[in-house]
Amino acid sequence: MYPTIRTLLLSNAHCWDADSKRSCQDLFEKLDANKDGRVDVAELRAGLKAMGIFRQGAAQKIMSSGDQNNDGSLDFNEFSNYLKEHEKKLRLTFKSLDRNNDGRIDASEIQQSLAELGLDISKENALKILQSMDIDGTMMVDWNEWREHFLLCPAHNLEEIIRHWKHSSVLDIGDSLAIPYEFTEEEKSSGRLWKQLAAGAVAGAISRTGTAPLDRMKVFMQVHSSKINPISLVGGFSRMIKEGGLSSLWRGNGTNVLKIAPETAIKFMAYEQYKKLLSSEGQKIETHKRFVAGSLAGATAQTSIYPMEVLKTRLTLGKTGQYTGMFDCAKKILRKEGIIAFYKGYVPNLVGIIPYAGIDLAVYETLKNTWLTHHTNDSANPGVLVLVACGTISSTCGQLASYPLALVRTRMQAQASLDTTDQPSMSNLMKKIVAKDGFFGLYRGILPNFMKVIPAVSISYVVYEYMKTGLGISK
Fold first, then answer.
1. Same domain for 233 and 124?
2. Per the database record, which ranges form the EF-hand domain (predicted)?
3. How many domains does the chain have?
4. CA 20 to 30 Å from 457, out of 100, 185, 391, 468?
């Protein structure tokens, strides 16, 4: 029934010449339920639902793009102007996907286009995506079918919808170990990538600040909690507030935020270089090579900013008045312990990148392909909740695998001030923790770490989308 309604409402609704004005007017009048000459968000949402368009936030995005006078509704001129501009973008994308210029898109062309975006899908999934747009049953999509499918979708094209599926480090959980975001050639040449990196950095800063108390609790429990000295969430927070007041819950957060920008930039630039080294010119990079390039880029970035990781841990564990700030902390460590102290815990940190990034990427790919297999008959667009759920689950699985190494890294960073003879190696420290607290001793502090994942991912996603809009790279 929904495809029939959509066809009746959208067919021939071209809006920028006199001959088609009547068709556009008909569509506008159908959406204008109370006949006041304006379409508000509620009417637009109801109209989209009647046409079978259930994408979360679609009505709001159309409204924000088309509402030129910011009065919260669309008049006919605003509505027709929105459709005019939107259709121009759809036409350009249709032509870019139509590789053989025969006026139709087939499954192989969809596969090829998505592969260039770094998203490998099976022929079966490509056919399912195609079927969601195919009206006449030919298993090919012509311009009219393409236009009808996307005309009232806020995403301009199939590439934009599927690009959401690319696992992205903008979903910041406070651990910069994910595979970097992969930008298209168009984004690189237009300069949009720097705006997107800036948006990701701001999203990460706000996300980490919002979850900083849980992050400090994680570090506190990693270092101080044991079988004979168990620390509960409530007890730990009480101790920290009693020692330094409410503001102490954010101790070390400044350094954690400051390292986002340089780490993101270094990781991106290194990732691009490693991809070139690992792939032949003009050919797409395979998933396993993308993982290797991402891991190497992560290692390069971590090597560059690792002293800030040590500073963040020391400030997080420091007592009130111990350090006046990041530079004071660095000066005291350098004077007392030497430059080597800034790389304590470096080995477990580097080793931890591989299980984290590998499992995170593998789980995300599995969840993505499962969703595409079961839902592409209706739409290829996953929606915000699905994206956040997939990002949360994959990040959590990655953390489970790499957490013991993260705990050992933090212990080594914290113990750097001890005498050299009292500083065990990575393997010896791990054995010591297991002997003293059992296997689960390697997971001290994982509860607050898990607790921060959902709010961190959610805050990152929301802030990132708002930042993209504010910077003019998303309408």
1. no
2. 19-54, 85-120, 121-156
3. 2
4. 185
**Cβ contacts of 354 within 8 Å, gap of 6 or more:** 295
Amino acid code (one letter) for 357:
A
Tokens of 374: 């079961």
- At 293, list the tokens: 């390039």
Helices (H), 68-136: 76-97, 107-116, 123-133
Tens digit of each residue's pLDDT (9 = 90 or more) over 256-272: 999 988 888 888 888 88
CA atoms within 13 A of residue 211's CA, in its CB half-sphere: 26
What phi and psi values does residue 278 have, to the nearest 5 degrees?
-95, -10
357 and 441 assigned to the same domain:
yes
Q: Is the dihedral of CA 409, 410, 411, 415 positive or negative?
A: positive
User: Cα 290 to chain center, whole Å?
Assistant: 17
Residue 77 lies in domain:
2-163
Span 206-258, pLDDT tens digits: 999 999 999 999 999 999 888 888 889 999 999 999 999 999 999 999 999 99
Does 141 share its domain with 191?
A: no
Collect all residues with Cβ–Cβ distance below 8 Å to 415 and sequence separation of at least 6: 344, 422, 423
Instruction: Please give the single-letter amino acid code of residue 17.
Output: D
- Measure Cα distances from 30 to 6, 355, 461 in Å: 12, 54, 34
Q: Is residue 403 part of a domain?
A: yes
Q: Which amino acid is at 300?
A: T
- Can you say whether residue 258 is alpha, beta or left, with left for phi > 0 and alpha for psi between -120 and 50 degrees? alpha
Does a structural domain hold residue 175?
no
| Encoded tokens for 368 | 């993505």
Q: How far is CA 123 from CA 114, 129, 350, 411, 429, in A?
A: 12, 10, 37, 49, 49
Indicate whether 158 and 192 sit together in one domain. no
